[in-house]
Specification:
nucleotidyltransferase; cytoplasm; alpha+beta; single chain; DNA polymerase, domain 1; 378 residues; 13 helices; five-stranded mixed beta sheet; globular; 12 strands; Alpha-Beta Plaits; MutS, DNA mismatch repair protein, domain I; DNA polymerase IV
Length: 378
Amino acid sequence: MANSGDSETGDDGLPDADVGLRKIIHVDMDAFFASVEQRDNPELRGKPVAVGGSSGRGVVAAASYEARKFGVKSAMPSVTARRLCPDLIFCKSHFDRYREVSEHIRAIFHFHTPHVEPLSLDEAYLDVTQDIHGIGSATAIAQAIRRQIREETQLTASAGVSYNKFLAKLASDQNKPDGLFVVRPGEGATFVHSLPIRRFHGVGPKGAEKMGRLGIETGADLASKDADWLRAHFGSFGEYLFRAARGIDLRPVRANRIRKSIGGERTFSEDISSGSALRETLDRMVEIVWERILAKEAKGKTVTLKLKFNDFQLITRARSSDRAIADKAQFAGIAHEILAAELPLPMPIRLMGLTLSNLEREGAGDDSGREDAQLSLL
């Protein structure tokens, strides 16, 4: 990968602070929950492990890389995971332990920069434009962070290094697990063009299918479309796609974001409409979203259900409590009340979303922003 000029760049080709471009690192822990369980229980090392409930309605919260080889992934029903991997070992989640390890890792981040934007317990953006310890380059800082994490926690992390958040996040996934990848100035568009469209954040299975019908399979295909064409086919999402296809992202790293909501959404492989199927799906979503709420130590008063019909019409329905929702049973109860008020549906739906909002400014909810694009459950 080419440098941008010897006099104005560090030894990784990223610009010095006075040039104007940022130096961004995205750090993503490798199979974090499952890796903590394997670290703390030597008998689990090297074996397929899933964190989450193993009962009929249980959901996989995280899967080790040994399990992922069989197709097991987060948000998957436990019965499906067991079918894919009969030797799968289920572990009960220990969020207190995960939070403790996460705080240790964040302390490592803050040693290198005050500009840390956590996205969840296991990933964060860091702006290291100012090299406060004189390490020499953003790449060297990322290597130092990964080395320090391994030495102090016995866990591995992957990192992406680039000049904006979008590219850094894509890069961190390029050489997983335990990898490092750098996208230098002038290389962003070329890098993005080489990626399958499914790698773009926010493009789910249905979106990728629609793009495939329009002849878009890669970033290069997407970049061949102008802004008007993308807006005509994808509405406001087309603006994001136009910039992303060119490796453009002007968002700064925000160190003290106030979380607005915590949630998730699921796009179905087949449209659903029956009340029983909808209630079962909602139960699974409650399990996943409530685990995220616990992980963030968040407290909120408003539950919102989002339904997207197969004609792409979207509705949202919300209910609020006078006080912060106390437990998962109350959260589930409100969600089911909202759904029940909409049944029977006028037509099948292709997507369901569930969020908790109206959050109090307490606990871990203060240090990171809204779940990015509601983090698709599948």
